[in-house]
């Protein structure tokens, strides 16, 4: 256990290290961000970034590759920024709802074409491709297609790609990758249902 | 590779499984939620849950145990809900800024007393204890203290506790635990600085 004075000295050193780190990090660039893993929070953390960007006055586009992932509460929240935000729910539901692969593929491709129009438009500072990793995993889109699209984005545009099972080539191309890992989940263990304010 | 018809049949089975799962999950309860790990998105995902809850019309309290974790863009966003939201920035900065352990401990204890007043008030459906895990890790608060407080919350109140290094006893007491794992980070690898709309 350190004395208060030793603590003070240690913190003084740490502050110097922090200051040097900040001084070394001067580059600004649009980031390719991936939220993947089986845990919660992939879309929710992206929603937080969307709101931060809106709070800065930036234009944001959300393309939702699986319909139903966003619920009325999100829409109510986002309606405050309808002049800055383009929101497109492109999917037709989970794959087990539609039960029609050809229609799912057509939907995913249409969503991707729309996504490209925002990705290449420098007015949009953040583009959220929600659940696109699931479309990649199901081969509704190819990784090559998506990487070629990401290569066309303006330097300062941030892109967030969410969903389980992000392919390795996408992770290689990304700047910031976070894996949300499920440690404990009440739905499985306690029979608790999805609850308003938390899940939707 | 499945034929389209095999795909349809597989999805039909999966839909039945999903329906059964939903039917089994009937319980509603306030959740103790922990976001921990060294990755990004712990606070951001909590912010997303806060906004969902506000979108549902619920009252929400945010107690920030380390000042500086929330920036003007978040505050601009949250100002739309000032009638539903209690927001308290209680810390005085990172430990290496204050360099004064006794003052940090006093701040953390004051933040905890305030948190308790919201945790025990049934009007608040969600209480976010942002970066409290860091205060626990530094022994500014004891786990016993926090677990006793959580035990006093009304049945339907959700609590989110964020920060690296959540103690095992807290994880045991929690309902939903997600670990955000850093896979790749542009600050370390590319010298990129924290950027508006993403980091703050």
Automatic annotation (TrEMBL), chains A, B:
A single BP term in Gene Ontology: cobalamin biosynthetic process
Enzyme class: transferase
The organism's place on the tree of life at top rank: Bacteria
Pfam families per record: Co_AT_N, CobA_CobO_BtuR
Keyword Isomerase: no
Chain ranges of the Cob(I)alamin adenosyltransferase N-terminal domain: 3-22
Keywords: Transferase
EC number: 2.5.1.17
Listed InterPro entries: CblAdoTrfase_CobA, Co_AT_N_dom, P-loop_NTPase
Entries under Gene3D superfamilies matching the protein: P-loop containing nucleotide triphosphate hydrolases (3.40.50.300)
GO molecular function, one term: corrinoid adenosyltransferase activity
Name of protein: Cob(I)yrinic acid a,c-diamide adenosyltransferase
């Amino acid at each position: 256990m350190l004395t208060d004075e030793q603590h003070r000295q240690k913190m003084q050193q740490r502050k110097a290290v922090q200051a040097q780190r900040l001084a070394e990090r001067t580059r600004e660039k649009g980031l390719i961000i991936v939220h993947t893993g089986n845990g919660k929070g992939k879309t929710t953390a992206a929603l937080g970034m969307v709101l931060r960007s809106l709070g800065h006055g930036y234009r944001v586009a959300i393309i939702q590759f699986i319909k139903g992932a966003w619920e009325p509460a999100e829409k109510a929240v986002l309606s405050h920024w309808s002049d800055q935000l383009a929101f497109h729910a492109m999917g037709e539901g989970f794959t087990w709802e539609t039960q029609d692969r050809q229609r799912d593929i057509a939907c995913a491709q249409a969503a991707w074409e729309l996504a490209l129009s925002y990705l290449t438009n420098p007015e949009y500072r953040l583009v959220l491709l929600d659940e696109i990793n699931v479309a990649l995993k199901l081969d509704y889109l190819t990784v090559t297609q998506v990487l070629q699209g990401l290569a066309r984005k303006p330097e300062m545009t941030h892109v967030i790609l969410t969903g389980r099972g992000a392919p390795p080539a996408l992770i290689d191309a990304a700047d910031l990758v976070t894996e949300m890992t499920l440690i404990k989940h009440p739905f499985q263990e306690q029979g608790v249902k999805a609850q308003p304010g938390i899940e939707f």
